Amino acid sequence: MSEGPTLRQLRYFLRSVETGSFSSAAAAEHVAQPSLSEQIRRLERNIGAQLFTRTNRALQLTDVGRMIVPLAEQTVRSADDLAATAREARTLTGGEVSFGTFSSAHRYLLTPLISEFRSLHPQVKIKIVGLNSSEVASAVRGGDLEAGLVQLPVDETSLAVSEPVLVDEVVYVSADPNRTTKPVSIEDLSRATLIMSEARWQVDDPLRRSLAARAEAASVQVSPSIEVEFQSAALELAADGIGDTFASYLVARSHHSANKVTWVALDPPYEERFAFVTHASGGLSPATRQFMSLAHRHISALQSVASGWSGRRSALETSAENDRKRQ
User: Fold this and answer.
1) What's the CA gap between 193 and 227, in Å, rounded?
2) Which of 34, 126, 166, 260 has the most CB atoms within 10 Å of its CB?
């Protein structure tokens, strides 16, 4: 049983076609002519046909030789592409990050994360899609994205979901400081002029579902007067005094209108948990894997900031409870 043609044999064959002689081909390939000639003979034995007609002037391709030239070129080109892709993957001198996030992540995470990744790996392409968490999960499930950072819960079908990597808290935001002197209850919300984000995704929005459950338990109704798509838009409207809104603490503190509003926790507090999602079958590219590793470090720093707010809120609640007991 004969072995198949090797890449080296095909390269020597194509070089011989290009130069018109074994001696010139051997010089171009930096090998001795007998070695190159022997590889050509082995290729002919493997194929079972003569590839060249040897003359005193130059090599002439046989009919079989002419037929296999394009196939040999395609095989060598594919092998070169494969090697280049593997090399780029090992060294991150190429490839593409394919990642999705919830829309407000650009407010406090994506800019420093992308800037650092780009400085480390300037030749890697970056595609970041900022969508609702449900849509990110669907895109990862469908193979349109390799991975994403989403707010839990999401439909975990065909997904691998990490442990929460970030826990943030929803705060009540108002331009009127008199409305943020104490944690806001569901009864307070039923009387407020509310601006709510996630207008298109309200059915899938965990905060809206939680508020609806709290309202039902308290026999009150909570409904927005204004609905917009993004938290940033809701915050801008709140800063103009149009109404009050909700935002993740990390978003509220980083928004350009943060100096125009104040915020306070909900009563009881509402926490948001975020996790990485990948396809259950795995198969992350090195570029996306490295991006996620760097994202994890940036998120750890953000967690310290978010935890600081939660700690201050808890201390204030304890102090207020102690004051009530003394009274």
Assistant:
1) 11
2) 166
**Helix, strand counts (H, E) of the chain:** 11, 13
Residue pair 165/276 in contact by the 8 Å Cβ criterion: yes
Place of tokens 């280049």: 84
Take residue 214 and report the two structure tokens written for it: 């709290």
Residue 49 is classified by DSSP as: S
Dihedral angle sign, alpha carbons of residues 162, 165, 170, 176: negative
- pLDDT at position 118 is 92
Contact assessment for residue 140 and residue 112, using Cβ atoms and an 8 Å cutoff: no
Alpha carbon distance 261, 283 (integer Å): 45
What letters, b where the CB count within 10 A reaches 16 and e where it falls short, cover 31-66?
beeeebbebbebbbeebeeebbeeeeeebebeeebe
CA distance 207 to 205: 6
> In whole angstroms, what is the distance from residue 170 CA to residue 235 CA?
13
* Model confidence, pTM: 0.68
CA distance 63 to 175: 84
3-state DSSP assignment of residue 6: coil
Q: What is the per-residue pLDDT for 79?
A: 83
Q: What is the pLDDT of residues 160-195, one digit of tens each?
A: 999 999 999 999 999 999 999 999 999 999 999 999
Q: Which of 94, 104, 42 is nearest to 234 (CA)?
A: 104
- The one-letter code for the residue type at 31 is V
- How distant is the alpha carbon of residue 287 from its chain centre? 10
| Rg of the chain in Å (alpha carbons) | 32
Q: How many CB atoms lie within 10 A of CB 322?
A: 10
pLDDT digits (tens, 9 = 90+) for 44-61: 998 899 999 877 777 889
Q: Which residues contact 217 (CB under 8 A, 6 or more apart)?
A: 186
